[in-house]
Design brief:
alpha/beta; 25% strand; 36% helix; four-stranded antiparallel sheet; eight-stranded mixed sheet; Aminopeptidase; 394 residues
Length: 394
């Protein structure tokens, strides 16, 4: 069966590559994937796969296996693009046709791959036990997350999903490899919005003002010690201030400074601790100077925690398909976030990375880089593996 799956992946390889290039040329932002959804549905229609639409965009294709069983395996692909202007000579033949919007995170490859998996599974339908759900999910790149919204509809719960699998392209790994681990795989990314409010004035009379730029500088410096002096050193966490905005010119002290940042953790207790320490630091600095503040801590996606059986199944099927050299059992998790975590709050599941980075395809740039690209050989690993997870999950 593994050999047959690989043969079919090779048979439909060029089709998957072509699909990815088409989707790459026609990207749509989160929750605006209307034309992408139409395209996916048309392809499912061509394959004779019925689908349902629990959300406004995206859809869930349904393959009924020939072998009767209560087993329901869900395969997920995200379909949205990023608000970014892409670059890179290697992609010029299929550049985005939408100004300022591009698939620079690999979701075009994820969608193309799942359509390829659907094609393979339809040829092997007689071997499928139970039902397969092909989840084409919108809005992974933007809170609250399409995974959260889909789970909130109750649709997947009503289908009695037995296990859910999802993947991501990985520029850090070579084509032909698969990387994952049991347990924590990706962090919970939260967002912070801060405004420090002071008192504006002239730079020549700074003693009459309350300088929010000075207070913001103190805050950013103080943030660096929150993790090193408050978080258990056996816990992983990171705080980043990604944007500071304030002031207009050389000699004017502004009224306020705004900041944006992110907090990434694996445990809810650590997340709560950092939230409390951030606000306490902000309050202390501003009140001591006679200023004030606003503070918002926006809950992001949960941490991606792979269930044991499903993660081991990914590693075992990778070994069976491609040999032990293709298997990368990750030693430590990533601080990146993924809304696949919402599915894992309801069902056993595993998320994994498929190698897509190589010098020859200029595809070693990190996710969200304007030159991000995917080596086409990604499909020769991703498609057989996903199909094999359907056919070999107990």
């Amino acid at each position: 069966m593994h050999a047959r799956i690989k043969e079919l992946a090779l048979k439909y390889f060029q089709e998957m590559v072509g699909t990815r290039k088409y989707l790459h040329q026609h990207p749509e932002l989160s929750y605006q994937e209307f034309e992408t959804t139409k395209y996916i549905k048309s392809r499912l229609d061509d394959l004779g796969i019925p689908y349902e639409s629990p959300l406004e965009t995206g859809c869930v294709g349904i393959i009924e296996g020939a072998k009767k069983s209560d087993r329901v395996i869900a395969l997920r692909a995200d379909i949205d693009a990023l608000p970014i202007q892409e670059e890179g000579d290697f992609k010029k033949e299929f550049y985005s046709k939408v100004e300022g919007v591009a698939h620079c995170c690999g979701h075009d490859a994820h969608t193309s791959n799942l359509l390829g998996v659907a094609t393979i599974l339809m040829e092997l339908r007689d071997e499928i036990e139970g039902r397969v759900l092909l989840v084409f999910q919108p809005g992974e790149e933007r809170l609250p997350g399409g995974g959260k919204l889909l789970c909130e509809t109750g649709y997947l719960q009503s289908q009695n999903v037995s296990a859910v699998y999802g993947l991501h392209t990985s520029p850090s790994h070579a084509p032909g490899t698969v990387a994952t681990r049991v347990g924590p795989l990706m962090a919970s990314p939260d967002e912070i919005e801060i405004e420090i409010i002071g008192k504006g004035g002239h730079a020549a009379r700074a003693h009459e003002a309350i300088d929010p730029i000075v207070l913001a500088s103190q805050f950013v410096s103080g943030v660096q010690s929150i993790i090193s002096r408050n978080v258990d050193p056996t816990e992983s966490a990171v705080i980043t201030i990604g944007k500071i905005e304030g002031g207009t010119t050389y000699n004017i002290i502004p009224e306020s400074v705004k900041m944006l940042g992110t907090v990434r953790t694996f445990s809810k207790s650590t997340k709560k601790l950092i939230e409390q320490k951030l606000e306490a630091l902000l309050k202390g600095i501003t009140e001591a100077a006679g200023g004030s503040y606003t503070f918002k801590f926006k809950q992001g996606y949960p941490a991606v925690i792979n269930s044991e059986q499903e993660a081991l199944n990914v590693l075992e099927q990778t070994n069976a398909l491609f040999g032990e050299d293709a298997v990368i059992d990750l030693e430590r998790p990533s601080m990146a976030g993924e809304d696949f975590a919402f599915y894992q709050e309801h069902f056993p599941g595993a998320f994994f990375f498929v190698g897509s980075g190589s010098e020859e395809s200029d595809s070693t740039y990190v996710w969200h880089h304007p030159k991000y690209n995917v080596d086409d050989r990604f499909f020769l690993t991703a498609a057989p593996l996903m199909a094999s997870l359907v056919l070999n999950t107990k």
